[in-house]
Write a structure and sequence with these properties.
Largest sheet: 6 strands, mixed
Oligomer: single chain
Number of strands: 10
Helix content: 25-40%
Bound molecules: adenosine-5'-diphosphate, magnesium ion
Number of helices: 10
Strand content: 25-35%
Order of helices and strands: EEEHEEHEHHHHEHEHEEHH
Strand order of the largest sheet: 6-7-8-3-9-10
CATH superfamily: P-loop containing nucleotide triphosphate hydrolases
Radius of gyration: 17 Å
Structural class: alpha/beta
Shape: globular
CATH class: Alpha Beta
């Protein structure tokens, strides 16, 4: 049996910062071509989950299977090379480089069976970036920098991307552009796992949601299933 190239399966994931046990037996999956939201309040463990998947948390146990292969013991660069893209919550663009140059930094060879992204397609996906190709990263707004970070990650032709709070701090008009871009990424066959604090953005794009609180998964299901349980929503999410 061949597994879909973009699937991610997490089981028994535990993570620690020093003596603090942050993630407890986190388990969930992202199917091929799905947009899945990891929802939870500030401090719930969303970023730690994404970092643990990428091998960026020093002390961690559990299993992470990506595209049918166990990547739990691999270092972060090897995980990225397999086509797992990661956009951390602090936007790490090169402020001295232009938009075009930032994109070139992310360029990787085409990957069989996965959409290949070129700057022109990324400018279509994020029209703001297309209008400022020669601008230095440091002279862009926070929302534009957020888009550039995602676009640069797509230059690596990932089959699945982890987006840590892509809507955080964006103006309402930019939030809609971000949602449209994520839906367009899915149309190109990408799978997306994004973290998010509230339901509004997830409603625009997600097929399924997982809710994390105090490092444990408290709910997994479709958005419709979550909407039918307002007590769950009120207990674990910011309103
Ligand atoms: P979220 O992304 O959901 O806001 P985080 O994964 O960043 O949550 O944090 C989960 C918990 O881990 C919080 O209690 C936070 O204070 C703690 N934490 C996060 N990063 C570190 C770190 N580098 N060292 C120690 N504790 C941390
Ligand atoms: Mg976070």
């Amino acid at each position: 049996m061949t597994l879909p190239v973009s699937s991610l399966q997490i089981s028994g994931l535990n993570a620690w910062y020093g003596p603090a046990h942050i993630l407890s037996d986190v388990a969930f999956d992202v199917g091929a071509g799905e947009v899945v939201a990891l929802l939870g309040r500030n401090g719930a463990g969303k970023s730690t989950t994404l970092r643990a998947i990428m091998g960026l948390v020093p002390r961690r146990t559990g299993t992470v299977v990506f595209a049918g292969e166990d990547i739990s013991a691999l270092p972060p660069y090897a995980i990225a090379r397999r086509g797992l893209g990661y956009v951390p919550e602090d936007r790490r663009i090169f402020t001295e480089l232009t938009v075009e140059e930032n994109l070139e930094v992310g360029r990787q060879p085409p990957r069989p069976g996965v959409a290949t992204w070129r700057p022109e397609q990324l400018y279509a996906l994020f029209p703001n970036l297309g209008e400022m190709r020669r601008r230095q990263g440091g002279r862009m707004s926070g929302g534009e920098q957020q888009m550039l970070t995602i676009a640069r990650t797509l230059m690596g032709n990932p089959s699945l991307v982890l987006l840590d709070e892509p809507s955080e701090g964006l103006a309402p008009r930019i939030v809609e552009q971000m949602a449209d871009a994520i839906l367009a990424m899915r149309q190109q066959g990408l799978s997306v796992l994004l973290s998010e604090q509230n339901l509004h953005f997830a409603r625009l794009i997600a097929n399924r949601v997982h809710i994390i609180e105090k490092g444990r998964i408290r709910f997994s299901g479709t958005l419709a299933e979550l909407e039918a349980q307002p007590d769950v929503r009120d207990a674990y999410l910011a309103v």
